[in-house]
Each structure stands twice: as C-alpha cells, then as structure tokens.
Amino acid sequence: MSSSRTIVNDHYSFGPLDIPRSQVFAETPLSYGIVNLKPVVPGHVLVVTRRIIKRFESLTEDELVDVWTLAKKVGSALEKHHGATSLTYAIQDGPSAGQTIPHVHIHVLPRRDGDFENNDEVYDAVDASERAIGGGGERLNLDAERVIRTPEEMAAEAATIRKLLFNNGVNPNAR
Amino acid sequence: MSSSRTIVNDHYSFGPLDIPRSQVFAETPLSYGIVNLKPVVPGHVLVVTRRIIKRFESLTEDELVDVWTLAKKVGSALEKHHGATSLTYAIQDGPSAGQTIPHVHIHVLPRRDGDFENNDEVYDAVDASERAIGGGGERLNLDAERVIRTPEEMAAEAATIRKLLFNNGVNPNAR
User: Domain boundaries in chain B?
Assistant: First the structure.
C-alpha cells in the first residue's frame, strides 16, 4: 500500500481548468488533492483523479482504490486539524447531479455540530460552490456569504494541508 | 476481481437495526446493498460495510475497495434501469454530518434533470430520509411528500435490483 514513489507533474487539470501546482496539496500515482475556490466550510477540499474522466463508472479499479484511499486520509487529517467531529463525502456524478466540472472529484468537508443551521444546507453550499467554479451563477443563493479566494490564499492553504499530512504520518506524494 | 464465492448470512445489520435478507439485493465478502425505508428518488439505495463500523476512516483497505466497487456497480446498473442520467453518491460520516445510523453506508441515488427543482434539495431529502430511519423526526420537513414503505415493497425492490444486476453481468453475490 505504501511506496515512496513521487510523481512530479508540471501540469494539473481539473476538467478544462489548469490548476497551479501550488494548489495541489497531495498526490498519488493516480489522484491528487486540491484546494477549493469557494470552500463552504474550513477544510473543504476536492480529491480528483489524475486522469480526466467524467463519470465515476469509468474509473479503473486501481483509480477507484487510489482516489478513495487518498480522500480517506485527507478527510481524517483535516477533521483533526479543523477540530471537526464528522465528515461529509460527496460525488456529484454527472450534470443532473449538480456536477459542473466534467472530471470525477470527491468533495471532502470537515463538519461540526451546528456548522449549518440544518445539516441539509451544507449541500446547498457545495452545489453553489460547484456552480461558481463551473461558471454558472444564477442560483448562487449562498454567494453573499462566501468570498472567492485569491491564488495566494489557495496556495497557502495547500501548503498548510501538505505539511499537516506529513505531520500525521501521511506522505502526500505517495500511496 | 471476480470470484464466484457466495456468502450466505442469516443475519444482516444496519447499525442497531436488523435487515431482512429479502431487502439485501447484493452482497460481497465485505459489503452489501440494501433497499431504503424512504427512498427520495426511484432507486435510492444504500451500500453498507458488512462489519458494523461507525466511521469511514476505520475501514480497512480491503473494505474500502469492496464497498466502493459494489457502490459503483450498483450505481451504474440503477442509473440505466431507472433511465437516469447521473448519480449522487454521499457519505454522512459521523453525527455532525447528518449520520443517524452509526454504521458506514453510501447513499446511491440515480438522478435526472429536474428530479428536484434545485439540485440542492436532493440532499435535504437524503437527510430527512436518514433521520426517518434513525428515529429522529423533528426536522422531517419533506416527510409529507414521501411514504414509509412496507416490508413487502422493500423486498420486491430488492428482488428487482438483484435480477437487474445479474442481467447487467454483475453477480450480486460476488466480487
């Protein structure tokens, strides 16, 4: 399960978007973790497959293991780091499920009691966040509560998470 | 990846609840798929780990592969069967994330355009459904729109899905 293999790409994509390396906080042979343009809770990040594939059913078994193993490690580390008590994991697998970027990605959200008045609202926020990335905007009803972040803020968060994973004994560049 | 190994239990649990075998539509060495007391869309089912564990981080690598491989197969089969175009996958991992049954489970929901007025609402409904199972009820704001099903209805759906998986070349009793 573990190897010290390190992948260094000079290019990271999230669907049609280029993702700066500074925003990638972990990478494995088949996946990477990226910070979010509009996190809806502290530590809301995405874990994506390295290969640009639209639908979850197209993952190979190796990709499935890799992306979920990474998401699980990231979730555990972020939950502790943010003093949270639970996690939400969600995949919007296809446009009718709210997917706006045609590239498999797992939303990982550290959760704590009362972070949303009703638990339901976290998903409203996830959807709004996803629509913000995808360019749609008409239904951004929670937009006023959040701010689109600068590349510098996002790079800083990625650096923090990378360090955090290392400190928790997780090599962000290996599986 | 495939084997013809068949597990036959005489007992299935979902947290503290006993699940009749008739409501189990697929099983693998480490997981099984069960129909839902209050599905929020046609084909809304749960995929659970055979071992009763509360948090996703406690899954072994074998369990993680097993439960997600099964969820992926079930999702693909149900999407086609229900004429859907997308899927929502969600894990409420811990009470603060809306988990009411302390047993890792993946919600799998076939989705189609317009099944909810806003995509967000599907999650409200998932949460309400989960609270119904867990016994909480104060916040069941969508309750009026759905009906708790009889054991017979649930067994019939499980039988349909089991057949469906077989017809799609997926052995519901093997991995």
Answer: 12-167
Distance CA A121, CA A119 (A): 5
Chain B residues in contact with A69 (beta carbon < 8 A): 61, 64
* Chain B interface mutation, best of A57, A70, A73, A93, highest count of B Cβ atoms under 10 Å: A93
- Among A44, A82, A103, A105, the active-site one is A105
Q: Please, is B5 exposed, middle or buried when counting C-beta atoms within 10 Å of its C-beta (0-12, 13-18, 19+)?
A: exposed
pLDDT per position in chain B (175 positions), as tens? Answer: 444 444 555 689 999 999 988 889 999 999 999 998 878 888 899 999 999 999 999 999 999 999 999 999 999 999 998 999 999 999 999 999 988 899 999 999 999 988 876 666 676 677 766 765 554 332 222 223 445 677 787 777 787 877 777 776 767 765 4
ipTM at complex level? 0.82
| CATH code, B12-167 | 3.30.428.10
Interface test with B, best of A67, A80, A123 (most B CBs within 10 A): A123
SS3 B109: strand
